[in-house]
Amino acid sequence: MPQDYNARFKEILSRLAPDKKKELYSRMHSLPAEEREGFIRDFVKKYDARKAPQKAEPPAKPRKKPEAKPAPQGKVPLKKETPGKPAEPVRKKVKPEKPAEPVRKKVKHDKLAKAPKVTEVHETERSDEPKTSEPKENKSPLLSKIIVGILIALLGAGAIAITAINNHEDISKLLSIIRGETQPVETSATENEYKIAASLAVQTSGTAAETEATTPAPTPTPIVIKEDAPDLTGLVIVIDPGHQAETDETEETLFPGATVGKPRCTSGAVGVDINTKEYEVTLEIALATKAYLEACGASVILTRETNDVNLSNQERADIAVAASPDIFIRIHADSVPDSEVSGVIAYVPDSGNYIETDKKLADSLGTLVAEAQGIEYLGCFSTNAYTGLNYSTSVKSVQLVVGFLSNSEDEARLNDDSNTYEIAAAIAEFCGEL
After folding, report:
1. In the CATH scheme, what architecture does the domain 210-431 have?
2. Would you place residue 91 in the very low, low, confident or very high pLDDT band (cuts 50, 70, 90)?
């Protein structure tokens, strides 16, 4: 299925209420795997089709009003056309006849916009009418035009006001970008504020292929940190968002001096329900965490800031070692055959300078991230199965699995922006303990 349907579906999901989101996940999970992509495509099309026509209606409604308002101005000359010379009898007949001729009034009044017609009518009437009515008829066309002009101006201003109210946030952001100002930040972190920060970070960091001509990359909004966020000034942290968009099957050695090889890098796991890509989830979490840690004062290095790279696991480890960081965190979201497995798990290298230290750090980090998501911490394991860990044993290193895409609930959780924010805040809390 085209990438844009998947991405659009995830965007729509982030706007749904939790109960509707859960209901949608359950419905998809009940479908056979081959029918899910079709379901996602149809859902996106129906959702967009339902939303599209609603935006065009507000500006169209006010345009009918300029035709109806001037009607009272035309009543005096039109009614005086039928009566004879006696003044008093005419007025008595005019009052009951007013509601009986709505169509004729509208037709004649519609022609007020045409200058020649108005002039002819008033000139003939002026010759028959008494002197007392002449001032009214001289003012009538001018008054009509003034009132019509005022109404059009008011309606235009109203339409602009309605549009401005509906698009207040976008207009505010646009004005701030034009002026070169930063967006105002509130004192507490909310889900909507995080959504803006995380989505802007992803859009700004993407390649030209990811941000193709649909929307220009906006200026990133500073992320809102919690009131009890730690001061991380002076810390250097390297984060590796696991995997990448394209697998590179070229082999590299598993660890220094080994004869065993592994592919340089793969695209990672795929979600069980909505085909969430591991390489996308890890980058979103890494970008949000970088923004949060930097807001706390830390210096943060990402091994990649886009999905369209070809960076081997050895090269990622080399980036970390070269930076001499206080901690090197590799972010992953695994998949296992048992779909019931859910939670957070940590891996550390089984050799190097920090074997025991890495275990303690991994337990602390894993526990905090699991608690932040409300799921179980499954423990820490020493291993030589991961190239990125085996080549970074000279620095403190932890590989953190934030959840399992093979589990429906974990996959849904990892697509929730507020959950991503909590992961970033938990990693910041862990770094405050270093």
Report:
1. 3-Layer(aba) Sandwich (3.40)
2. low
